[in-house]
Specification:
67% of the residues lie in helices and 0% in strands. The protein is mainly α. This is Pentatricopeptide repeat-containing protein.
Length: 510
């Protein structure tokens, strides 16, 4: 079907999508307000508390160190420390000690954000017995901070290592934990299954439990969002209308996205027309899907025209829309057009993000183009856009492949100074390069920098550096590094059985 334009003027209201909101719960007493700081805690305070938690060898030493530090343990600071622990993969048991200590203070109530972060940390290490212990304690002290998002956080970790049946059993256990066990919790289960299992599993669970919960708009949008098969998505879309649930812009966008990913652009265009007929306005997400679909269909120029047309009808492209168009030209190896679009973004007041740069880094990585990668990295840093982990991995792997030690060390120093990227992932590649090139002094320095930031180098990297130090008779250095590694404690043995999921079931369902 030939088309010259896919856009029409915007003229009506569109509803905002549902979002979980964190609420700092608990009584509105003076003591509670005292612990909630209005201003953000200093970065130094967060780092100081993080290091205390990471280096503590016992509950007693943790409490003493926190008391002597003089740092005010507000809700905001605790949120940030737990987030720091989460992203640094620090010891979950030490994090739990910190969480329990701060929560046991008279008049203090944790936020929902702190609880969910703590549960994520425990779940990632498969410490499900302690997860249920914590939920059991919280439901007696302040059940209001156990939200549908809490359900999703816990179930997501369980679903990663357990069967669908065990995930659903854990979901049922929440009936005695969550203050309101309703459709929002059911939606959390479905979203978890869509993300961690398969759409087919989510569909089967939906059909088996839908008689206990009345599906709403969000239910169908969750189920529509992950389908790769147009037939399956169309089936849920039809069931949605049969149940009297009116599709919104999110619903239509999900179906259009399925069509675009399947390169069925005629169906995608027809659905855009259908949206206008029922006065549901296409938004920037609609057009971003169209742009991506046209790129997959080998029509990057037509996709670029969508950027121009949508502006004429009151819907302005955002960074994601430009990234979709840039991706099309990168796939087509038309980097001149891709750079032109990035310059256009800047001229329109939009700042390219790490995803934008990664589109180019990927091309340069596979073509072994060191100079262009390095120039782009310089441009990225000069504009104040910090690389993310993916950016760092494209660069460090290219540096290792081409044995560029100085560039690798420059990237690492920038990471240490600016605090971006994953120290753990990047350091493994960096230490490999430094050891291959015999740069033992540099490897030791980077090792100590990493430990100083509170990040534990991998055991593989430590052993490799240790072997080289032994060959160089650097016994004092070996002792120093061994002591640094010991600060992180022994590795946690994870349970071999998923029976821990039921350890606390009797208490939670009592």
């Amino acid at each position: 079907m030939a088309r010259t334009t896919i856009l029409k003027p915007l003229s009506s209201f569109q509803s905002a999508p549902f979002r979980f909101r964190y609420v700092s719960a608990g009584p509105s007493s003076f003591l509670f307000r005292l612990f909630c700081s209005e201003s953000s805690p200093p970065h130094d305070s967060v780092e100081s508390v993080f290091r205390i938690v990471s280096s503590s060898t016992s509950s007693k030493s943790l409490k003493q160190s926190l008391k002597s530090s003089g740092v005010f343990l507000s809700n905001d600071l605790i949120d940030k420390v737990l987030k720091r622990i989460r992203f640094s993969h620090a010891n979950p048991l030490q994090a739990l000690e910190f969480f329990n200590y701060t929560g046991n203070r008279k008049g203090f109530y944790h936020t929902a954000l702190s609880l969910d972060t703590m549960l994520y940390i425990l779940g990632r290490s498969r410490l499900f017995n302690k997860t249920w212990d914590l939920l059991d304690d919280i439901r007696y002290k302040d059940p209001s901070i156990i939200t549908p998002r809490t359900v999703m956080v816990v179930l997501a970790r369980i679903a990663k290592v357990c069967s669908v049946r065990q995930t659903v059993e854990s979901f049922r256990r929440f009936k005695k934990v969550v203050p309101e066990f309703d459709i929002s919790c059911f939606n959390a289960l479905l979203r978890t299954l869509c993300q961690e299992k398969s759409m087919r599993d989510a569909r089967n669970v939906y059909h088996s439990l839908k008689h206990k919960f009345r599906p709403n708009l969000q239910t169908f949008n969750i189920l529509l969002s992950g389908w790769k098969s147009p037939e399956e998505a169309e089936g849920f879309f039809e069931e949605m209308r049969e149940m009297g649930v009116k599709p919104d812009v999110v619903s239509y966008n999900c179906l259009i996205d399925v069509y675009c990913k399947g390169r069925e652009m005629d169906k995608a265009f027809k659905m855009v027309d259908k949206m206008r007929e029922v006065e549901v306005l296409p938004d920037v997400i609609t057009y971003t899907s169209i742009i991506g679909g046209l790129g997959l269909a080998g029509q990057p120029d037509k996709a670029r025209n969508v950027l121009k047309e949508m502006k004429e009808y009151g819907c302005y492209p955002d960074v994601a829309a430009y990234n979709a168009a840039i991706r099309n030209f990168c796939i087509a190896k038309r980097l001149g057009d891709a750079y032109s679009l990035m310059d256009e973004m800047v001229s329109k007041g939009l700042s390219p993000n790490a995803t934008t740069y990664n589109l180019f880094f990927r091309v340069f990585f596979w073509s072994n183009d060191l100079q262009k990668s390095w120039n782009l990295y310089g441009r990225m840093m000069n504009t104040g856009c910090l690389p993310n982990t993916q950016s760092c991995m494209f660069l460090i792997r290219l540096f290792k492949r081409l044995e560029k030690v100085e560039m690798a060390l420059q990237l690492w120093n920038d990471m240490v100074d600016k605090g971006f990227g994953s120290y753990i992932l990047v350091s493994d590649v960096l230490f490999d390069l430094l050891c291959d090139m015999g740069k033992l002094v540099e490897a030791e320095r980077c090792f100590l920098q990493m430990v100083g930031k509170g990040h534990k180098p991998s055991n593989v990297s430590f052993r490799r550096i240790k072997v080289l130090m032994e060959l160089a008779n650097k016994h004092e250095a070996i002792q120093n590094l061994s002591e640094k590694m010991a600060l992180f404690g022994t590795s946690i043995s994870l349970p071999d059985s998923v029976d821990v999921l039921t350890d606390k079931s009797s208490r939670l369902t009592a």
